[in-house]
Known about the structure:
Blueprint: E1 2-5, H1 8-17, H2 29-36, E2 40-48, E3 51-63, E4 66-71, E5 76-77, H3 82-97, E6 101-106, E7 111-115, H4 129-137, E8 141-142, E9 157-162, H5 168-173, H6 177-188, E10 192-195, H7 201-215, H8 224-233, E11 238-239, E12 241-246, H9 247-269, H10 276-306, E13 309-319, E14 324-331, H11 340-355, E15 359-365, H12 376-383, E16 388-392, E17 396-399, H13 402-419
Parallel strand pairs: 4-6, 14-15
Antiparallel strand pairs: 1-2, 2-3, 3-4, 3-5, 6-17, 7-16, 8-17, 9-15, 9-16, 10-12, 11-13, 12-13, 13-14
Helix pairs in contact: 2-8, 6-11, 9-10
Amino acid sequence: MQFTELTKHEFTDFVWQTQEMSHYFQLQENIKNRENDGYYVVLLGVKEEGKVIAASLFSKVPTFGSYFYYSNRGPVMDYSNKALVDFYFKSLDQYLKTHQALYTKIDPYVIYKKYDKDVQYNEAYGTNDAIIEQLEALGYEHQGFSVGFSSVSQVRWMSVLYLENETPASIMKQFDSQRKRNIKKAQKYGVKVRLLDKSELNLFMDLYKETGNRSGESFIIREDAYFEGFNDFYDDKVILPLAYIDLDEYISKLADEIANDEKQRDQMMSKPEKSDKQLKKIETLDADIHRKQKELLDMSELRKTDGPILNLAAGMFFENHFEINYYAGGSSSKYNQFMGPYAMHWYMINYCFEHGYDRYNFYGVSGDFSESGEDYGVYRFKRGFNAQIEELIGDFIKPINKPKYLAYKALQKAKQTIKR
Length: 420
């Protein structure tokens, strides 16, 4: 085996074709994104007989006169191959010592445990303690089995819908009654979904910020530039669906339904003799007509004040070789009745079927599944789609220049003390 810097081509071929889980942060599109943020990037891998068998994108961040090397959701390799893991990280140590590294951080995209939607442990999958123990033996300090969200760490808990051997019809049957009902409501309203052009990122940002402003401290609001980087550099790997309603179309549909109902009622009323069943049907039609007339009036007023097109919900998704990943989203609370988020997710789940993806990753949940949890509502939303829970192995840090790292940590601690 040979530890080496990789070309972009070598790196891309490996992470796109590997059988291992590979996160969208470990795509070559992230190179320009990180460089645009002012960081250096190095691609470090292992080859065997000329073939890449491990790879990672490291951001090289100037820190305390040295560099902090961060592999965001990497390295990518077969972690069950203990010899490969040993070789990679021992070789990495030597590389970092000769390239001014202060310390390094990794958070591999590796599952620690699996659970069902109700957070019941999946004993058949087991627990990946061996990987944690091996990394610790290599000098990497596990940062613990964290719960909650942080602006300085990736999520450690994910909610994933498994689509293998399923169809849209069979997967819909696994949704709870509220998910089914709300998807059908969105369809009744004629809610549509379209994919935004890169020039329309502002439509996503408006809904994202609105959601963040009403969600409280549990919602970490990212700066515009953060999403602009993904939008600018991830090419077709980033997907921006927008759920919207065309009120003109819906108003026309309502008017047609009312006319048809009134025609049917008038035909029944014209009969000289009416059975109890017919009278009941007339009563039901009258109630439906009244309800639809009121809704028609409400929609017409909404059309006057808000215009013909209402943007309901939008999301930022990433795709790689094995999954579609929902990263962030937002919706308008003013238009909750149209069920935009449900329409958006149902559209993207069908996108997975159309493009051959077996995993629809709703992504982050806090890991606190109690009713008092900061994101309990978000967990319940994803649980309703029958999404399973995956717990990742977490963050690891290794000091490379130990004396200097201790001084750096002491300085950080002193700064925090002064702030208090």
